């Protein structure tokens, strides 16, 4: 069995997958394309929220960070991170933003949950800068996309559930 045949069993049309820089997408199929004398097997992934279709060479899927949807256990680990105490660092925003961006683009659900936890602000906690809100929304979107696919619910409901988890945790700590 070739590497591509092995991967094509891992990535099945109709399944959800996660691409680090785009979040959760749905596999809509595969196709063969000839590019400069080379035959490529491509995985076609549709990202509804971005209205985008991505074709990933099957042989480069793992290298590009494409992965199957997180398991229930991995989601539970992310929820534990959300419930944790936020890490407040006194470093400059530009440095923290770079670290947060790296975590978001890692594709790791647990790392992205850390960003959501650290940037979450209740209404009475003061204002966030525009860039903090943007980064928070990007991270929340990623976690909620995966949460909604695992829980078989819509993304808006997932966002509400996730923010309630953080809200209830911060109220218990107070």
The whole-angstrom Rg is 18 Å
As a percent range, the share of helical residues equals 40-55%
The total strand number stands at 5
What is the CATH-assigned architecture of the largest domain?
Answer: Up-down Bundle
CATH class of the largest domain: Mainly Alpha
| Poorly predicted sequence stretches spanning 5 or more consecutive residues | none
CATH superfamily of the largest domain: CarD-like, C-terminal domain
The number of domains: 2
Write out the strand line-up for the largest beta sheet, numbering strands in chain order: 4-3-2-1-5
Q: Count of helical segments? A: 6
Outline:
elongated
Give the amount of beta strand, in percent. 15-25%
How would you describe what is shown here?
The structure is a single chain. By secondary structure, this protein is α+β, with helices and mostly antiparallel strands. It has 2 domains: 3-68, Thrombin, subunit H (Beta Barrel); 72-173, Methane Monooxygenase Hydroxylase, Chain G, domain 1. Helices cover 49% and strands 20% of the residues. The protein has 6 helices and 5 strands. The chain has helices at 3-10, 72-83, 93-106, 109-119, 130-151, 155-173, and strands at 16-19, 23-35, 38-47, 52-57, 67-68. A 5-stranded antiparallel sheet has the order 4-3-2-1-5. A hairpin with a 4-residue loop joins β3 (38-47) and β4. The longest helix has 22 residues, at 130-151. It is elongated. 25% of the residues are buried. The model has no long low-confidence stretch (mean pLDDT 87).
